[in-house]
Amino acid sequence: MEANSVFIPSCESGGAFASKQCQQGGQCWCVDPGWCQLQGLQCRPDGSFAPLQCDVTSCWCVSENGQEVGGTRTSRQTGRTPSCDRKN
Fold first, then answer.
1. Domain contains 13
2. Which of 9, 52, 80, 85 is 20 to 30 A from 70, comparing alpha carbons?
3. 44 is a domain residue
4. Is 15 among the domain residues?
5. Distance (Å, whole) CA 54 – CA 58
6. For residue 35, what is the enclosing H or E element?
7. β strands within 7-65, DSSP E
């Protein structure tokens, strides 16, 4: 993958990462979707990251390329989640 390209993951219909990921050009590799779910990583059926990501302790917003948006991490103990609205 080129340094300036952005990889968009493949996902199952339930939002988990597909076990086989491929980039344009044909290079493929395997991932463990169970591990991704344990880490709280979620994506949309079209392969883009869901704006709101949560694990067992907190929730946070991510950019379109899956990078955490600074200042958005919120403890689940508060009972609130950050607003992660972003234009697609």
1. no
2. 9
3. yes
4. no
5. 6
6. helix 33-38
7. 20-22, 28-30, 52-54, 58-61
Token digits of residue 31: 């991932």
Three-state secondary structure call for residue 22: strand
Model confidence at 75: pLDDT above 90 = yes
How many whole angstroms separate alpha carbon 9 and alpha carbon 33? 11
Which residues form the domain of 68? 20-77
Q: Higher confidence at residue 36 or residue 57?
A: 57
The mean pLDDT value for 5-34 works out to 72
- Cβ-based burial of 52 (10 A; exposed 0-12, middle 13-18, buried ≥19): middle
User: What average pLDDT does the segment 9-18 reach?
Assistant: 77
- Measured CA to CA, the distance from residue 43 to residue 84 in angstroms comes to 14
Q: How many domains does the chain have?
A: 1
